[in-house]
Specification:
Layout lengths: L4 E7 L5 E8 L3 E5 L5 E8 L1 E5 L5 E2 L4 E4 L5 E5 L5 E7 L2 H12 L11 E2 L2 H15 L5 H19 L11 H15 L7 H8 L3 H12 L3 H18 L4 H7 L5 H12 L3 H10 L1
Antiparallel strand pairs: 1-2, 2-9, 3-8, 4-7, 4-9, 5-6, 5-8, 7-10
């Protein structure tokens, strides 16, 4: 089996936007979410992308778009593997792009994760090339980014979803989410979480998974990974990051980190320093 390769970096003059360029064969991404958006394009092989809307196979020249908070997962569709590039614009970037073309506040939403659009693919390739080229002009990067996002929204976004009514059960889920964010380093039990909101453990488990798309333990793991990323961006040693974020040791952090991010903590740390 060929060796997997992955490089992740952050583009400082675009609000530290993260970009990933990778060739994967056995790598699988566990079920997870992002705080912002993601837009990627397959360049070789085929990606089996999973979300609540289905599990399409993404072929070369086809794209995948990820909404904030959308549970998704993925891996190679066959032993041939796949190569792709993806970047993760934050919500502010999409909000600005939406306002520029529709004069509307809020965020766009994309109900179809699988996009086949040659014009958008061309724009995305142009953008990814300049994001990879450290000598490219900031003005060029900003221009290509805005053209890519406005095309994406114009031709592929839905109307912004209406806000759901906040029921007592959803309020309980929100409380538990806040507790996990505050206490992510603790070895918290399901009973402890249930006591926080006066629900039975099974009722909380079902309500949380229905609202978030992940069970509490998986959501907690994701919080820990995000906190680990923040500490790595500061230059903290990996072994210290592991201890500070609730992992048993460095190898425990590394194993989970790669399943969420696609690179090891060491690769991520180096990528944050080099761009």
């Amino acid at each position: 089996m060929p060796k997997e390769q992955a490089i992740l970096w952050r583009v400082q003059d675009l609000n530290n936007i993260e970009v990933l360029k990778a060739s994967y064969y056995s790598q699988t991404f566990t079920r997870h979410t992002h705080d912002g958006f993601g837009l990627g394009i397959v360049e070789q092989g085929q990606l089996q992308y999973g979300a609540d809307s289905g599990e399409p196979v993404i072929s070369p020249g086809e794209m995948v778009v990820i909404n904030p908070g959308q549970v998704h997962w993925g891996g190679a569709a066959s032993s041939v593997g796949y190569a792709y590039r993806i970047f993760y614009p934050d919500c502010a970037m999409l909000s600005q792009a939406l306002q520029s073309i529709r004069d509307a506040d809020g965020l766009p939403h994309f109900s179809n994760s699988h996009i086949c659009d040659r014009a958008l693919a061309h724009r995305l390739w142009q953008l990814l090339d300049v994001l990879e080229d450290s000598s490219s002009l900031t003005l060029q990067r900003e221009s290509y980014l805005m053209m890519t996002l406005t095309h994406l929204i114009t031709y592929h976004a839905d109307t912004t979803p209406a806000l759901a009514q906040l029921t007592a059960e959803k309020q309980a889920v929100r409380q538990v989410r806040d507790y996990l964010h505050d206490c992510y380093g603790e070895n918290v039990s399901l009973q402890t979480l249930a006591n926080q909101v006066q629900l039975k453990p099974l009722q909380l488990l079902r309500s949380f998974r229905k609202a978030i798309g992940l069970p509490p333990h998986a959501y907690l793991l994701q919080i820990r990974i995000n906190q680990a990323k923040a500490l790595l961006r500061q230059g903290d040693p990996i072994v210290e990051v592991a201890g500070a974020t609730g992992f048993a040791d460095q190898s425990h952090l590394t194993r989970h980190f790669k399943r969420f991010v696609g690179v090891t903590p060491g690769q991520y740390s180096r990528g944050c320093r080099h761009r």
